[in-house]
Structures are given as structure tokens and as C-alpha cells.
Amino acid sequence: MSTAAPAPASTPAAAGEELLVVDGLRKEFGGLVAVDSVDFVVRRGAIASLIGPNGAGKTTFFNMITGVYKPTAGRVVFAGEDLTGKPPHAVTQRGIGRTFQNIRLFQHMTALENVLVGMHSRLHGGIIRSILRTPGLRREEARAEQRARELLDLCTLAGEEDWIARNLPYGDQRRLEVARALATEPKLLLLDEPTAGMNPQESDEFRDFIGLLKRDLALTVLLIEHDMKVVMGVSDHVTVLDFGEKIAEGSPKEVQRDPRVIEAYLGTGALAEGRR
Prior knowledge:
By secondary structure, the chain is α/β, with parallel strands linked by helices.
């Protein structure tokens, strides 16, 4: 794993304070309640996981945090600012980055170009500077490319800068999505089922990679994940949804032992796997 990395997103002194506070978040689609009045807190510097069976409302919850969906009720407060109902680009500018359950790379662009796209909201080129190709613009572009290469290196994609995204192995495409999200300079990184489709070895490697993001970048991570070995191995705090309602939360060990969680989601086989 490379040690090249951008500056940390937060400082140790700030660790532990409430970074994301969700109050009574609710989403209705017609007569269907997808998320039902959920309260939720993520503390700065933590790795928090959101788990639950398929259809529990996890991705809908992510989509409300990131502005894809406007909540029917409730509030989303991030770093002290109310982001409820703000559009995705505004949420990204405030410091929330994300990946998607289904990979959404620019498939016909190179890995480097994908990461540079992620930096767009942080660049200051402007139309006039772009037309005139000013020295300041060229310096900014050079810095952006250097940073993009550092992020690719961090995500173990060094040497693959010029690969077309669709030609990368599946696991590398997942890592490229993370590199692009990191390019937005997030304080909070949302990962939506990042190990989906990976084999056990790839999942273990990605679990270690999530730990690296916390350790080396001081990032706060919110994770949706079905692989209980990943969840229980990396999380500081776990919240469980079932049919859009929060049914449990606590440390991984506390959640593992909760009868409601076992009944709704984990089952005895998954529980034993998470304890290995």
C-alpha cells in the first residue's frame, strides 16, 4: 500500500465531535414509507456502518444525505450547517463525498481523467482563464494532475493512470470510484456497498483500505455493507435498519448480540462469520 496521501481532512483535536446529525429523517414514495423518522449521528474520525436486509432503506437514506432525494420530513445537519434538501453539488462542496452501489465511473475516460473530474468543484479556472490559458490556470491544472496521481497511488492504482476505466479489473474500478470521491476533498466519505461483487480476498484488502483512509487521511467514513466480516472488522459504530426503521445501534459486538438484528438480518451463519 502506498504512503502517498493528501493532507488529512480533519485534526485529532476535532475527533469525536458530531459531524453528521440526522434528525427524524423520513422519505415517502407515494404511499410507501422507505425511511421512517430515523435519528442518526456520525462522529468525526469514526467509521460508522449502516446495515440491514435488502429493501431496508439504506441507499434511500444515503440519497437524502447527499441531496439526490429531498426528505419528506426531518433534517440533515453536517458540520453545523443544515443541508436538508440542498442539491448534490452543494452537498459535495460542503465536504460529503460518496461512491455508489452500482459503479458510476466515466467508462470511456481514463482513470486519471475520472479523478480529475472529481476535482472540478474545487478548481477555480473560470471561462475567461480557460479561454486565455493563463499561467495561473496552467499551474492549477498541473497541481490538480499531481494530486490526482497521488490519489491513484493511495488507492493502489499507480501505473494505471492511462487505463480506460471500463478496462480496469472490477476491484480496481471500485478503488477508482473511491479515488474520484477523495478528489472532492471530503470530510465525510459515504461508501455504498463497496465490496459488492468482490471475492473474500478482495473484500479483506478493501477492509484494510478503509482503515487506511481513517488512519492516514483522518477521514470519517459512513459505510453501507452486506459483508459482515468487513462491517464487524472495521466499524466503530453500527446502525441497523429494517423496513425503513432503525431497530438497533451500538458497537459491533452489541449489534451482533441484539436479538432483533439476528432475527431481521444477520442470522446464525452471518453472526458466526462476523466473529471469526
